[in-house]
Amino acid sequence: MLLLLVFLVKKIVTLSCPASDAFLVPHEWYQPGDLVIGAVVSHTYYNIYEINFKEYPYITSYEVPNVIIKFYQHILALAFAVKEINKDSQILPNVTLGFHIYDSYYNPRMTYRTTLDLLFKSQEFVPNYKCDSQKNLMAIIGGLDFVTSSYIAEIIGFFKIPQLTYGSLAQEEFQTIKLSSLYFMVPKEDHQYIGIVQLLHHFRWTWIGIFSFDNNNGENFLRKMQPLLSENGICSAFIERLPQQLHMESFPELYQTISIVSINMLTSKANAFLVYGEAWIIIWLRFVTFLVDPESKETALLRKVWIMTAQIDFVLSGIQISSDLKMFHGAISFTIHSTAVVGFREFLQTINPLSDYRDGFRQNVWEQSFDCSFPKPELQGMDNTHCTVEMKLEDLPAPIFEMEMTGQSYSVYNAVYSVAHALQALNMLGFNRKTTTMGKKTDLPNLQPWQVLPLSRCNDPCFPGSWKKGIEGNQFCCFDCVPCPEGKISAQNDMDDCFECSEDHYPNEENNGCILKPVVFLTLEETSGIGLASVALCFLFLTAWVLGTFIQHRDTPIVKANNRSLTYTLLVSLLLCFLSSFLFLSQPGKVTCLLRQSMFGVTFSVAISNVLAKTITVVVAFKATKPGSQMRRWVGKRLAFSIVLSCSIIQVWICILWLSTYPPFPELDMHSEHQEMILQCNEGSVFFFYCVLGYMGVLAIASFTVAFLARKLPDRFNEAKFITFSMLAFCSVWISFFPAYLSTKGKAMVAVEVFSILASSAALLGCIFLPKCYIIVFRPDRNSMSKVRNPNLNKKTTPK
To answer: For an engineered disulfide with 706, which of 112, 200, 510, 615 has Cβ 3.0 to 4.6 Å away?
Structure first.
């Protein structure tokens, strides 16, 4: 056993690294230093066929590499940051920072290989061995996308080497596997989702197409976005899942996918496309349109608005360099925050194809950017343009290369400084580890209406005055537009339902807005008000004339026979009744609302009390003429005064109780009329209102009953007949008042009450006083004591 151990130890000591690589890595850039930062970028891709385990795998690259020239800036940003740090005496003094950059080639096999190279290779490669000179690897920056980052994390997670990603990734996917050595240089991808919804809302894009890579990352995006879109009233016309890799060995299947994508792209009614994917998805979409429309006749006029997430960059590569991006003109792209870095543009201007031989990426960049070549044995004798130092990056158009630092390059730049500051902290404190991340917030782009953007909808919008009614079997973004029902409006496009205006407004004719209701009330300026006021004035003057006539002829027998004091009181109360109607024809206010019903009730009660007193006086006077009658002591003014006072005082107390408990007040009636607010008096208490009317009714019925019973008294007491007719007319008016009053609203209610006041007052005036006025004015010969006592004196007798 001891001999075996000695043998094994001897074998381990004498083990040497192989002289050749088992699998060639075409590109790298190594700059030695005391401390080294590794990087895995995504810059070049080959059409590497998938391994099907049916044949021995190739160990060389396939065909000509396709270089995404724009991403060469990521490499230069790292080199520039290291150069700045090495020049800065305040960061890592006396320490030289180096770097070692590889490419992922957008391929898992190559990503694993280059990551292992960073860990174990300086000159030669043996897994889990560090051969030749030592490389002090401090951290790895990469990758640009989720898949590459996860491949790198799978390996370096075992070695606890910090990894700083510089692309916009779904960070929770990494957090679920608890990779503690992984750091993100950009904010969470979820922040973009809110911005996307806000953007779609701002431009009212509710019918959109969605393109996403067919991988876990794309599915996570759709799983989160689709509920957000639905909650905010946005529908997807289609969802296309794009293959992440273009595998030419399965071209028939690939072409079928391309056909479906192109059909949706060119024929969909959606005018806005949401694109989620990795940085090179633009290359994929441009490849699709090239196969379908090589001359760009249709795609140049596509007129679609593209909405790109922050990972995506507008890039061209390979054979696409000579084409354009017209189909993406007017696109809206979320971007990773970046700022101008002093000296970076000048640094790029110094880069030329011959400036640094260690840069293994540079030759392919120049060859594909400028269509030139470097001297190679296999190209001797061929007429090729040689790459020269006059060919500058600044001469390339923006889709191929940008001179300003992009968001992704800025993240790489910050990642280098994050590592440097962490190393500086360790260098200064020794035992106290600090890691300072310098991630920046993603600012939403400042969108300006510089371009007229088309709407993207399933159908035309429902304009104000209509609402959206879903179509059975369709998504909720497809709907019919239904006019708002009467009394409801919709003031905006695409309302889910119509709504009623506020109480003080009413819908306009188009049902798309509300109009303020005017305040109206029964006034002297409108026809009905003028008519009622004119009638009231006529009867007022007529009553005044009657009163004046009776006063003027107060000593005549006909006036004396009708109890002058009661007659004057009745005429004055009728004057006040006619005047009270004007309280109903003025603007309702606190004072008018308090006075009009109470004044009307009291004055009418006084008038009817006088009529009742007149009737009772007639009956008592007749009874007193009989021999031995006890009624004689009741004959006189005291009986009439007592009846008027006692009957009136009851109504006065009812009104006082009403005004002290539930007084009337002005209010706005917003519901009786559709287009008007009626200013009216709320009676406060309906009970007291009907008590006032009921008490007047009781007095009127009592007067009618007594007068009706006295109608057959001798002719010299024939005033009872006139009172009977007046009370019959009075009761008829107020009996018809109640159904008319209860069946009307607003101003009509007031008009009905004013009409009833005028009609009933006129009935009393006409039936009781006009016959007497006729005798006083037109037949004075009958206004004598003999005629009053014997009205049949002048009648012709007919012989029997």
So the answer is: 615
